[in-house]
Design brief:
- With 138 residues, the protein is an alpha+beta fold.
- It has one domain (10-137): Jelly Rolls (Sandwich).
- The chain is built from 3 helices and 8 strands; from the N terminus they run H-E-H-E-E-E-E-E-E-E-H.
- It has helices at residues 10-19, 37-45, 126-137; strands at residues 23-29, 48-49, 54-68, 74-80, 84-87, 93-97, 103-109, 118-119.
- The strands form 2 sheets. Strands 1, 3, 4, 5, 6 and 7 form a 6-stranded antiparallel sheet that branches. Strands 2-8 form a two-stranded antiparallel sheet.
- The radius of gyration is 15 Å and the shape is globular.
- Its main location: membrane.
- One of its GO terms (molecular function) is metal ion binding.
- This is acireductone dioxygenase (Fe(2+)-requiring).
- Its cofactor is Ni(2+); Fe(2+).
- One of its GO terms (cellular component) is plasma membrane.
């Protein structure tokens, strides 16, 4: 994706149309840009899940998403400018910045955004059970 021209990027427009990502905003994670920076960074790094998919498109900077594999081991995914990731509902994950301590990301949602994170353990949610069923089928 063309992060320098995200406002007019036809590929991003097509992804948003095809996946029905009707809502978006942009967040900058940096000590000078994000209110309650230290608290937010700690919250992002707490292992959690969401009941909806989490879609992030990195417009600038870099960081890491850590996700759990089917054996409950961590997988670190390096994200940088131009990368997009979709974390499925029910997957345990966390986010952290790298040594640059800066990322600017687009957050995309189907419908109205839901920001609720459920810290581990959260295994009784239907989204978690559905995700675990998906893993078992693989």
């Amino acid at each position: 994706l063309d992060a320098d021209n995200y406002e007019t990027d036809p590929c991003l427009k097509e992804i948003r149309r095809a996946e029905n990502y009707s809502w978006m905003d942009i967040v900058t994670i940096h000590k000078d840009k994000l209110p309650n920076y230290e608290e937010k960074i700690k919250t992002f790094y707490e292992e959690h899940l969401h009941l909806d998919d989490e879609i992030r498109y990195i417009l600038d900077g870099s960081g890491y998403f850590d996700v759990r594999d089917k054996d409950d081991k961590w997988i670190r995914i390096s994200m940088e400018k131009g990368d997009m990731i979709t974390l499925p509902a029910g997957i345990y994950h966390r986010f952290t910045l790298d040594e640059n301590n800066y990322v600017k990301a687009m957050r995309l949602f189907v419908g109205e955004p839901v920001w609720t994170a459920y810290n581990r353990p959260a295994d009784d949610f239907p989204a978690r059970k559905q995700y675990m069923k998906f893993l078992a089928e693989e």
